[in-house]
Amino acid sequence: MAKTAKEWIKTPPFPTSHFVDSRIYTDETLFKEEQEKIFNKSWIIACHESELPGAYDYRTFSHPGGAPLIIVKGEDLKIRTFYNICPHRGNTLLYDPVGNAKRITCIFHAWMFDTKGNCVEISRSKQGYQDRYTCENASLREVRTEIGYGGFVWVNVDDNACTLKEYIGDSMSMLEEQLSMPLEVFHYHKAIVDTNYKLWHDTNSEFYHDYMHYFNRATGMMQPGYFDRKYTGYPNGHASVGSMEIKYDAYQGSKARSVGWPGLAPGGWVLIDIFPGMTFNLRTSVLRMDTAIPLGPNKLIIEFRGLGLKSDTPEQRAERIRDHNFIWGPFGRNLHEDLLGVYGQGKAMREGTDSKWVIHGREENSTIHDEVGMRHFYAEWSKKMNRPAFNPLGDNKLTQAA
Ligand code: FES
Ligand SMILES: [Fe+2]
Fold first, then answer.
1. Do residues 302 and 193 touch, judged by C-beta distance below 8 A?
2. Is the peptide bond before 12 cis (omega within 30 degrees of 0)?
3. What is the dihedral of CA 26, 30, 33, 37, to 10 degrees?
4. Ligand 1 centre and the CA of 185: distance in Å?
5. Across-strand partners of 28?
6. What is the distance in A from the centroid of ligand 1 to the CA of 339?
7. Which CATH class is domain 40-151?
8. Dihedral angle at the C-alpha atoms of 389, 211, 345, 334, nearest 10 degrees?
9. Which fold would CATH assign to domain 177-385?
10. How many angstroms separate the alpha carbon of residue 334 from the centre of ligand 2?
């Protein structure tokens, strides 16, 4: 065997927590199990309250566990979530991604529901059902919904899951003050990428890949404080990365940000990863929120939202939008680089080579280039899946002592 081939297949010289089997990014069966054991049991961000400003506003949402959902604001201004499925014969109820509907009428046989999920009309009810079945017997299926941590709308399709507060624990404490005032979404786009959702979350959990971002190298990596940023892991797989001051003017064509954020030091940057695929990224003047919604093991929707303060003046808002687009807009400085990083990653390695492993072995005192954030994630993944990430299918023989 050629030397290089041996190098590719032998077990890395690390403890088993420091590498994973590359099939966790490609295997269909594991993906279905992740939907059931991870996504269908976790609190997931469906949208932000500012995207449903008025009564009867709704958004549809593809839940990463597979269920189609409707998020709707009732006439009582409470936000509720329902399956986007008619209780009669299972037709889709709402088709548009965004809209306003006082009544939700199924196009199939015209059953009608209000925004609290009650059935308010069954067409030709008496004639067909007499008194055997009435509106009392039908309703939309509600999904647990909580608003929190910056006004995001969180859903959990598991009726028996813990509360959102218990799920998040202390992991959001670094942003408590910064997220305590009303926020507003000013930017939304989504990318559909050939990759696994975990690989995207990895880019938000390790900063070693700042080597890919020329902008971050100039404004971050080469600045004091960068290598002092520490990872802190929290229960349920969440993690935060300490703050630092970004020197925006260290990059030609960029300048110090004139608009800041209440409670954040000038030029400050705080990042918090929420398991299994959401990231709060507050960088000086803009909060970016990523939500990973896998469509399969190698197909991912990433929803990107940019937020400012609801109280912004038009000038402040324009500045935030400019700052956002410069770094994180689809044509901005950094985002497409991250997308290039993950495009094809995992699948190509597994199916295009004989490699078995993806390495998470950097140790640097839990600071910014340490891969402890990824290891923390995969420890939780292994616990939820009841399968070790280095041996998820139970058939790996380690080829050298771990
Ligand atoms: S399936 Fe909706 S009314 Fe029949
Ligand atoms: Fe990045």
1. yes
2. no
3. -90
4. 34
5. none
6. 40
7. mainly beta
8. 120
9. Naphthalene 1,2-dioxygenase Alpha Subunit; Chain A, domain 1 (3.90.380)
10. 7
Pocket lined around ligand 1, Cβ cut-off 6 Å: 86, 88-89, 91, 106, 108-109, 111
**This prediction's pTM:** 0.95
Cβ-based neighbours of 268, under 8 Å, separated by 6 or more: 243, 244, 245, 246, 260, 261, 282, 283, 284
DSSP string of 85-143? Answer: B-TTT--B---SSEEE-SEEE-TTT--EEETTSBEEE-TTHHHHHTTSS-GGG-BPPEE
C-alpha distances (whole Å) from 356 to each of 344, 348, 363, 396 are 16, 11, 21, 9
**Could you report the per-residue pLDDT of 48-88, keeping only the tens digit for each?**
999 999 999 999 999 999 999 999 999 999 999 999 999 99
Domain boundaries, the chain: 40-151, 177-385
Residue 123 CA, chain-centre distance (Å), reads 40
Instruction: Report pLDDT digits (tens) over 366-378.
Output: 999 999 999 999 9
**Token digits of residue 11:** 């077990």
Among 89, 93, 141, say which to mutate for ligand 1: greatest number of ligand atoms within 8 Å of CB.
89
Compute φ and ψ for 254, nearest 5 degrees: -115, 155
